[in-house]
Specification:
The chain contains one helix and seven strands, in the order βββββαββ. A hairpin with a 5-residue loop joins strand 2 and strand 3. The strands form two sheets. The chain has a five-stranded mixed beta sheet with strand order 1-4-5-6-7, covered by helices on one side. The protein has a two-stranded antiparallel sheet with strand order 2-3. It is mainly beta. The chain has a single domain, classed as Lambda Exonuclease, Chain A (Alpha-Beta Complex), CATH 3.90.320. The relative contact order is 0.18.
Length: about 90
Amino acid sequence: MVRVLHSPHQIGGNHKRRGHGSSQINADLIVENRVVVEVKALRSFVPEHEAQLLHYLRATAMEVGLLLNFGPRPQFQRLIYSNALKRGFPVR
């Protein structure tokens, strides 16, 4: 049972990108502080959608992300980015 659902949710605070200033990271949904969910309503996914979700996973301690599309043909994609690959996050 899902106990905590946040929407919309700022994650990672101000995140600095290489060569750029700070930027806000805003996810559509965060489920139990474990899953980042991005919701779209387009014809289909484009690589930028996956890149956005991957960026959120890299910037936080969360390892699982869901990309949901409620366009003409519903789609979903699950991304996993292990904390073991991230700098500064302890491996559990």
